């Protein structure tokens, strides 16, 4: 088994399923000690940095960094950030499949796939590393935090590129289901093609002029008449041929069919409270189909979840 070079392997164990942060000290810059650079570079301030240095919490492959250690450009240093408390997402992750190469799970709504922003320990990756005792587990792809369904993780770091390549090479079939308004005049099925761009720092992605980079096949599976507190409803099968940020949500919204529970499209709404799990986005990654690039096995993984708005539309429409 190929292992990462010693210089790249963290000397610190994970904490709550989260890797230590790795810093490479810049070459040059005029700092006399490592401490001077850390105080200038990191947010906590001199008092916190001094406390961490005294406690041996900054380390190199050779051991803890001394408070007066001389600065060496290019040196690698690891440490654990102090993590803010997170609201527990009160839904389990169901493991659909596990072997020595893959872990495939059925992710609930509201749980991020990988650490990002304010969601760090309460993510599918961190949870699975802890629960399955697989510290080197990594994600082959991501689902939005608000999207539920099938997600694939890789057990061995050296095999991650081969599984990620399935997505880049379009060698994997992805199927989603969604619940959205029903429009009897809209002709379906159809394939939507457009250019979608996401500006850093802007919540919503947008369709813009230019070469097509996003393609989705959209099919109506069923529809229901208006309920007492809501309009007619459709259940849709979505087959993305590409994987742009928010692609399915953008394409459905462009057809006048914004997904139920979507806090971004067509209008960006105020963020709900961190412990508000009452209105999940009605989007579910139902199926992944592919040939395993490592073992050659044919895989088909299917979510066991369903979409609440379709199962109980009257209650959903009343906000129950």
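^ Assign residues to that structure.
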């Amino acid at each position: 088994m190929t292992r990462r070079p010693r210089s790249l392997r963290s000397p610190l164990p994970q904490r709550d399923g989260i890797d230590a942060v790795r810093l490479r000290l810049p070459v040059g810059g005029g700092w006399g000690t490592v401490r001077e650079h850390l105080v200038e570079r990191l947010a906590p301030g001199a008092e916190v940095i001094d406390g961490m240095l005294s406690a041996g919490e900054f380390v190199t492959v050779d051991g803890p960094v001394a408070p007066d250690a001389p600065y060496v450009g290019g040196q690698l240093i690891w440490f654990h950030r102090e993590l803010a408390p997170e609201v527990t997402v009160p839904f389990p992750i169901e493991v659909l499949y596990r072997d020595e190469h893959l872990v495939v799970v059925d992710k609930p709504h509201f749980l991020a796939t990988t650490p990002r922003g304010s969601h760090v320990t309460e993510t599918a990756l961190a949870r699975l590393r802890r629960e399955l005792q697989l510290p080197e587990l990594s994600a082959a792809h991501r689902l939005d935090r608000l999207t539920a369904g099938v997600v694939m993780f890789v057990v061995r770091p050296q095999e991650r590129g081969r599984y990620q390549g399935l997505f880049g090479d379009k060698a994997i079939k992805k199927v989603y289901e969604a619940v959205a308004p029903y429009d009897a005049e809209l002709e379906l099925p159809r394939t939507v093609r457009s250019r979608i761009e996401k500006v850093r720092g802007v919540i919503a992605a947008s369709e813009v002029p230019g070469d097509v980079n996003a393609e989705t096949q959209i099919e109506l599976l069923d529809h229901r008449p208006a309920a007492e507190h809501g309009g007619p409803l459709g259940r849709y099968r979505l087959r993305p041929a590409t994987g742009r940020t928010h692609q399915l949500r953008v394409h459905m919204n462009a057809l006048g069919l914004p997904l139920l529970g979507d806090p971004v499209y067509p209008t960006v709404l105020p963020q709900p409270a961190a412990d508000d799990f009452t209105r999940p986005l009605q989007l579910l990654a139902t199926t992944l189909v592919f040939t395993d690039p490592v073992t050659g096995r044919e895989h088909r993984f299917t979510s066991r979840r369903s979409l609440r708005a379709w199962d109980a539309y009257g209650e959903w429409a009343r906000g129950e």
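The CA atoms of residues 112 and 119 lie 7 Å apart.
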